[in-house]
Amino acid sequence: MTVRFSLPRRVTMYYLLFSVVSIAWLASGSVAVSQAILRSRTEGACLTRLGKAASAINIDYLRQGDSAFQKHVERLRSEGGFLYCAIVAPEGRTLAHSTREHIGTAAQEPVGERIQWGDIISVRFTDPRGSVVREYRAPLQVGHQYLGTLRIGQPEAGLWHMMVLAASYAPFALLAPLACVATGALILARMVSPLSEIELQLRRAALAPTCDETMLHPVRVRCGAGWGWNRLIQHWQEDRRVTSVEPPLPATPASRPQRDAAAILQSLSEGVAATDDDFSITYANPALPALLGDAEPPESVVGASIGELLGVTEEDASGHALLDPTLVHRTVTAEIRRSGPLGDRVLRVARYPLQSETSGAGKGFVWSVRDVTQQKLAEKMRDQFLDSATHELRTPLTNIRAYAETLALNEVIDVEQQKEFCNIINSEAIRLSRFVDELLCISSLEAGSMAIKKQNVELERLLNEAAANVRPLMDQKRLEFEVSLPPKMPEVKLDKDKFSAALVNLLGNAAKYTPEGGRVRLKARYDDARLMLDVEDSGVGIAAEELPKIFDKFFRSADRRVRQQTGTGLGLSFANEIVRLHGGAITVKSELDKGSTFTLTVPLA
């Protein structure tokens, strides 16, 4: 026996099913929200205590050295309720530990998921007892001296804690589905009333031998279905009164829509292709071979394998799904990387099953190819900027807060230490201000609103002032700093402030990435047409594959020695733009572990 439900009953059943699913979904969501809240609270508390403890250890190290390390880890362990607390030296030896037996031993490196926020590192691993532990690490650094890392272990909350927290949010989680059910009941009542009356009229008409105007009549309008039914009844009644029949309209030709569709496909900048079930190309628009670096017409690729054309095989991890025969009835999307005359690019390839108009069975596939290289580069730049900005903002703010709290709470600090702490606070504030200024400059560059004001400048004086600005940094690292100028320098039309800032940026980078005892040289040359300034150093150098990227905004080298230095990746981009606005250019020659030479060239005229 076949059971048939009327339309109002089906609507009611769908509504009840929707209500049950909504309540179940929101109930499960409350558990997930409680888990996220518990994890966020635990992680926030751990990071707050970790930052305060690291700052306190740095300050006590200035007074007492490493003798107070053990006292700090024991106090942090007892106050925070952590699983363990430890201080590990740069070479891996445990300097202090809440379990004294581990002092002096080699610290174990857990294997697990790592997450990094600026200087803070989180490691999630499973200990020998089978418990899930999150270890948080913060660097200990006083000035340029790296003391080691502060580590704290916190056991991850189990299912019972999440259920207890979920219970506290249960009333709020139930309010939403109850509101949905009540609102849905009102809407359903308005929908079902006219639908029931319409269905009753249609049933009577189906059972009657003839249909007259008394059998079908308008209904009370409460929804869109009522409006539509009343219009149908009105037209039906009018048609019954018409005695003459109008001649049918001539059929419209189908050739024009087909021509329009072909012209649209030919004009798309996105590559489009059609293949049969064996992935052989039966159609391709002009954009497809162009995206794949082929100058041939699209007819030349007809009959070729789409997998060979894209350069993917079933063994490739990225392109395996595109050629998987078990996924022929699904839409599949993958990203593949190609190297060719246009450089390294990322292509997003999508495969759609082509359905028959009659049977609906598979008749091949439609493929779309889009170049997403710029999008991927933008995402990479964004991630690099977030990492850099997090470090540049968190570190000075943490230091300012720590030293300010020490000045406010400690009444026995002598005058010299007060001056030292105030100088550190001022230095970190200047560092924050410099970072904000660089961001504003880059924003001006991107908006195209940065302009230069040229005026006659004594070149020798400008170069000497720039050298004087960076000389304290050179002396601090005991670098040999040489300034080589011709005996007579011409006057040049420059924007003095911006040009000086660009030159100081280059000299500051040379000092920052040159080891102690190295050499930095500023050399000036000129001829009748141009001025050339060379900034040469004996620093860490730049890898050949990174040279084309060094002037990109927010780019920082992957070299570990470069990553240890603070920076935003904006200095070289800013200097390059300033020189470009002066009509010049910056070139670079570099070799790893031998140094770099940046040559700044501007026209004299």
- Return residue spans where pLDDT drops below 50 for at least 5 consecutive residues: 1-5, 243-251
- The helix/strand class is alpha+beta
Number of strands: 18
Estimate the helix proportion, in percent.
40-55%
Describe the main β-sheet briefly.
6 strands, antiparallel
CATH architecture assignment name of the largest domain: 2-Layer Sandwich
Read across the widest sheet, the strand sequence of neighbours is 2-1-6-5-4-3
Identify the CATH homologous superfamily of the largest domain.
Answer: PAS domain
The rough form would be described as extended
Beta-strand content:
15-25%
Mean pLDDT: 77
Helical stretch tally: 13
User: In CATH's first tier, which class of the largest domain applies?
Assistant: Alpha Beta
Gyration radius (Cα, Å) is 36 Å
CATH topology of the largest domain: Beta-Lactamase
Into how many domains do the coordinates divide? 4
Distance separating the two termini: 97 Å
Describe the overall structure.
With 605 residues, the protein is an alpha+beta fold. It has 4 domains: 8-161, PAS domain (Beta-Lactamase, 2-Layer Sandwich), CATH 3.30.450; 271-371, 2-Layer Sandwich (Beta-Lactamase); 380-446, Signal transduction histidine kinase, dimerisation/phosphotransfer (DHp) domain (Helix Hairpins); 455-603, 2-Layer Sandwich (Heat Shock Protein 90). It is 46% helix and 21% strand. Helix 8 runs antiparallel to helix 9 (415-447). Residues 1-5 and 243-251 have low confidence and may be disordered.
